[in-house]
Amino acid sequence: MKFTGTDTYVATDDLTVAVNASVALQRPLLVKGEPGTGKTELARQVSAALGLEMIEWHVKSTTKAQQGLYEYDAVSRLRDSQLGDEKVHDVKNYIRKGKLWQAFEASERKVLLIDEVDKADIEFPNDLLQELDRMEFHVYETGETITAKQRPIVIITSNNEKELPDAFLRRCFFHYIKFPDAETLKKIVEVHHPGIKPALLNAALTEFFEIRETPGLKKKPSTSEVLDWLKLLLAEDLDPSDLKRDGANALPKLHGALLKNEQDVHLFERLAFMARAQR
Predict the structure, then answer these.
(1) CA 235, CA 111: separation in Å to the nearest integer?
(2) Which segments in the chain show pLDDT lower than 70?
(3) Do 11 and 4 touch, CB atoms closer than 8 A?
(4) Of these four, 76, 94, 206, 213, which has the most CB atoms within 10 Å of its CB?
(5) pTM of the full predicted structure?
(6) How far is it, in rounded angstroms, from Cα 245 to Cα 97?
(7) Can you say whether the dihedral through the CA atoms of 45, 186, 4, 35 is positive or negative?
(8) Would you tell me the crossing angle of helices 223-235 and 182-192 to the nearest 10 degrees?
(9) Distance CA 170, CA 80 (A)
(10) DSSP classification of residue 83
């Protein structure tokens, strides 16, 4: 069972090595990188390439580790007891299975995505250490132990918003998705926009990398944003000459697809003002 990428996902050699090493070691794959570099999509593509169903757990700031295991609905049980409902005698009726439980009890191997783990409280990763390591957990309300029938392929993504605990990192295989170079980015664009004219692609990517390298930029545009931008350029039927910027207009065409905050828009407006003043 080897991952080599798919027709719709350009995986670099080091990324495929990381995925396959994680599978071989039976350790979670921790993937970091800039937002929009395809971390979440990687899990979906691994699932598709290996023919395994995927279970997605999208972490929020309010998410607790226990929710990934199970939740006990004591309020509903109390209400049902007041109404005389017979099902209150079986506590299992009030246990809600979490994403890890679903992955553990599946008879066939799954791909388990724990998305944006760094959004949650700092204790969240630590609270999952034993469960991810031993692939089992205890349900205190029923007294049963849930053990994985088939060890899932676990892919954990992080946007590097906060440091993760060392104990958690030791249990993972780590990979950082670097921002693609020009040649890799061309391959990615070809997958999403096949047949795009080389002249337009070269002009667009030249400008895109110039924007990313602009000093003082607060948020550099990502892979997903350049794909959206190219989609708009194609929809507007623009040609390479339309993309040229001069001192009077430093903002790129359809800049809203690339620049995502007012500070960066103002930065390019100031660059235009300074260029005009020097004339």
Answers:
(1) 36
(2) 246-249, 275-279
(3) yes
(4) 94
(5) 0.88
(6) 55
(7) negative
(8) 50
(9) 45
(10) T
> Which residues, listed in sequence order, are joined to residue 154 by a DSSP beta bridge?
112
Residue 3, φ and ψ in degrees, nearest 5? -95, 125
SS3 124: helix
Place of tokens 């065409």: 253
> For residues 223 and 179, is the Cβ–Cβ distance under 8 A?
yes
SS3 state of residue 100: helix
Residue recorded with tokens 């069972």: 1
Phi, psi of 118 (to 5 degrees): -80, -5
Query: CA 8 → CA 14, 48, 91, 236, distances in Å?
Result: 18, 10, 45, 24
Give 237-273 as a DSSP string: T--GGGG--BTTB-SPTTGGGT--SHHHHHHHHHHHH
Dump strand ranges (E) for the chain: 29-33, 54-58, 70-72, 95-97, 111-115, 136-139, 144-147, 153-158, 173-177
Residues 6 or more apart in contact with residue 3 via CB below 8 angstroms: 11, 16, 19, 20, 23, 46, 49, 50
